[in-house]
Amino acid sequence: MRVLALLDGTLADPEAPLIRVDDLGLVRGDGVFETILVVDGAPREQGPHLDRLARSAAMLDLPEPDRAAFERAIGLVLDNWTGGREIALKLVHTRGVEGGDGTPTGFALGADISPKVIRQRAEGIAAVTLDRGVEPGLMQRAPWLLLSAKSLSYAVNMAALREAERRGAAEVVFTTPSGSVLEGPTSTLVMVRDRVLTTPPADLGILPGTTQAALFRAAEREGWTTEVAPIAADDLYSADGVFLVSSVRKITRVHTLDGKALPDSTGLHAALDALYESEY
Amino acid sequence: MRVLALLDGTLADPEAPLIRVDDLGLVRGDGVFETILVVDGAPREQGPHLDRLARSAAMLDLPEPDRAAFERAIGLVLDNWTGGREIALKLVHTRGVEGGDGTPTGFALGADISPKVIRQRAEGIAAVTLDRGVEPGLMQRAPWLLLSAKSLSYAVNMAALREAERRGAAEVVFTTPSGSVLEGPTSTLVMVRDRVLTTPPADLGILPGTTQAALFRAAEREGWTTEVAPIAADDLYSADGVFLVSSVRKITRVHTLDGKALPDSTGLHAALDALYESEY
Questions:
Q1: Do A30 and B155 touch (CB under 8 A)?
Q2: Rounded distance, CA A66 to CA A77, Å?
Q3: What is the mean pLDDT of residues A54-75?
């Protein structure tokens, strides 16, 4: 099932054309997005997602997203949802049409979570490491590379996932050329060792994770230690657990990395999942 | 004026919505494009542009563009054009809608050349060098970075142009971290010294230029020397001329680089422009 809400407070048919061919979101990937998980009618981390949408928009020099209009569109999707318990709710904000008056294009689209993602949450995934060609410090030196913006220009992220499939895996852990862990194409990496949760620093040029932040908040409250620190890809093999986390995939366990089995983290996964769910 | 032709051989209103909100070209920048210059009803380098569209599509594992359908759409735009002498004719080919049957989305959109580009062709431009963070060899090592594909994920290219504007310039010369010249965000760089035309090698991770290829073909026929070789950014200052070339901008002279005036290349520009025009 899908429900599409526009920023003017109306619903639209998700299968009908809505976007012009000269929308800069289409022809230049010139826009930003967020995906919010909704469970039993309650959006998770809606505030942080809207904050990050605004942050990404600022990095692209886009007009500020109309927060109240997006909130209304989210409510409209929820009010009209008659599908399953969970919704992947995507917010899109583009620069609008080329040569236009600068009015951005925006919408909120609710959709079912794919069965593949549901299965991966339960069973875990195989991942491969792929070089993203980005050394530490580049983000600060070259902000025009938009390294930590959640833009619509995701062709590389999609190409990396296809490369993973070619290698018999479902997911990617991007690394620097020197082998430092970055993130997944649409997720944040969290490593656990001796009850310490570690995630790489956003200033490496990666997206600050909303789900990772929620997990860390819950973990800290329950007496776990959390840290934001560089992770060498080689260290993943000896960790107690490696997880790719995002709104839609929640806490997904990596059971195999570059074809090599990781230590069994089934129990740890259950503990982290309970921590994360305790936030809601 | 604008004319929009679809791949089924029909015309459509360019100001009416045509694209669904779940088109992967929009939500993932997952598609490819070309822009062909049409002068007095004649498309320039149509074959090489269609070849490159197919090459970019293959790099993104997209279905092969339907060449005959694109050729028909191009013809349809030309047949229905009642505007000025020149058309910027954009071809777009996306992965189609998410979770669909794999049918790509495609269209051809003809539009007037912007007055700014026309003026820049005559007057030249100021450019700035910006680091693209990509070292030589990365394209071969990490093909998933799509470094020489003309994809719809152009947010970085657009951000670089805005950075140039902030620095009082109109264009960008992307460089490697170690200062080797790459390309412009939507153009190819050609340097001229002692009647030798030089452009950087595509295997640095840049787009092979259709207009640059046409210019080199014409130059070779007229006894100039051409070469494909690395260019150090510092060498641009002492060249006889530095040009950014593309279908729409033709041969545009760079008169200022990083705020420093380059040697006057007005005469050289006229010679190259005549060479290029002699191809048609």
A1: yes
A2: 17
A3: 98
